[in-house]
User: Fold this.
Amino acid sequence: MISRLLVGFFAPLWIAIAPAAHAVELIMVEQAGCHYCIQWKDEIGPVYPKTEVGAYAPLRMISISQSPPEGVDFARPVLFTPTFILVDEDRELARIEGYPGEDFFWGLLEKLLTEHTDFAQPAKTN
Assistant:
């Protein structure tokens, strides 16, 4: 009985931890008052976590005034906001500097993912 209770208690915890084993993430470096950061948050932010890209590379936002997250190595300093840094196992793989607008952002990000990770581009539907 107790073991069944423990399994029931820890199962949700295991499920919450399991996705963390996937190391690819997208770090958005932003700045307060940045027009393009606000535009990205309005146009892309609400749908990003609901997409295949968002599931594959979850988003983490940090301020340009902060150092990179602990243990994460950026290849070079961030000079522009927003900057989107694709990270795997705490190492920068690639980045998008600036926000090119909704029409171009998705294609650029999918290109980075397919070139630098094992991400498979979603099939296009007509």
